[in-house]
């Protein structure tokens, strides 16, 4: 018996239910890791998981696991899921669509009595966004064994709280932190549904994307120390202008990305702090971020090397002191060809058009792919907008993606 269709109303209800937990409702959705809105959203989603009959647990970094038991729980599990934390003034779909789709897929499988050998688990990964601690994918990174307790202790938010202090204050047991990593083979397959966060599907008028590879992100924190001085009295040849050096570096990062050997190279400077930030003062201190990504690690590394050389030249030419701290330099993650084939067959059987593509955005699947076979389902983003209050995906598109997800999870859970 084929699975019934996912209910758009369930999906809309859970997405809108989650969106009530928001620390800045006047401008999109802001739900930052372990703040009150995010803790309430965690409780809400755990209730929704329990309503569907899933048994819910958390690990020592707050990854949430909701289990639909199979006939042979001893077999490696099948995973789906995403995140519910957001960037500042975000939309209500980035991450949440995948969590909600996972719950609805589990409901379909359970309520229509579909037998499956393997347990199916719906996850909420802790802190996919770097918003609070400056590093993304904290929960899935710890699962991949790439976030030690010592490293977690060093991660600080703007108030100086460390990730571990926050975890302990919430009752998580750090003695269990070393049990978070997932061993190779422990997860049979992991499929994440996510909004595309770009405009490819919309431009092609195709409702489903099948992700073949997730571009690897690299991020850096740069500080420039120049010489704060008077904007009128200082002759141009005597200036050590920290902000204009930042501008030069930002434009060079853009040029390197545009002219790189890979069509997938992207770069931006998203956050800048200029001191003293006064209209008639030459800035003496600037702190800014650099985000560079590519589906090809060698090409990305060459871009980064060239940018670092350029930064040294700017430091020399302008008589500044420039410090670059590497935050992360992640490898791209390829999807598993067997899961891609199952996704393709599911779309074909349901006569749903699909497009195979890369993901420019990173996702928890990028980390999960280090210990398990992964693949992702994309649903269209209106006007390609994301990380913005204007982010929108049609609930009917998410429901369609959920049908493909449920089908694929069921097939994988019976392999
Ligand atoms: O930045 C990203 O790619 C993700 O949305 N956090
Ligand atoms: Mn995001
Ligand atoms: Mn996301
Ligand atoms: Mn390029």
Describe the structure.
There is one protein chain. The chain contains 12 helices and 16 strands. It has 415 residues and is an alpha+beta fold. The chain has 2 domains: 8-215 and 332-413, Aminopeptidase, CATH 3.40.630.10; 217-329, Alpha-Beta Plaits. β1 and β2 form a beta hairpin. One manganese (II) ion binds at residues 87, 94, 129, 387.
**Could you tell me how far the N terminus lies from the C terminus, measured between alpha carbons in angstroms?**
18 Å
DSSP, total strands:
16
Residue windows where pLDDT falls under 50 for at least 5 positions: none
- Rg value: 23 Å
By CATH, the architecture of the largest domain is named 3-Layer(aba) Sandwich
Beta-sheet strand percentage?
15-25%
Q: Would you identify the CATH H-level superfamily of the largest domain?
A: Zn peptidases
Structural class: alpha+beta
Q: What's the story with the biggest beta sheet?
A: 9 strands, mixed
Taken together, the total number of domains comes to 2
Compute the number of helices. 12
User: Helices and strands, in N-to-C order?
Assistant: HHEEEHEHHHEHEEEHEEEEHEEHEHEH
- Which geometry do the CA atoms define? globular
Helix content: 25-40%
Provide the residue-averaged pLDDT: 97
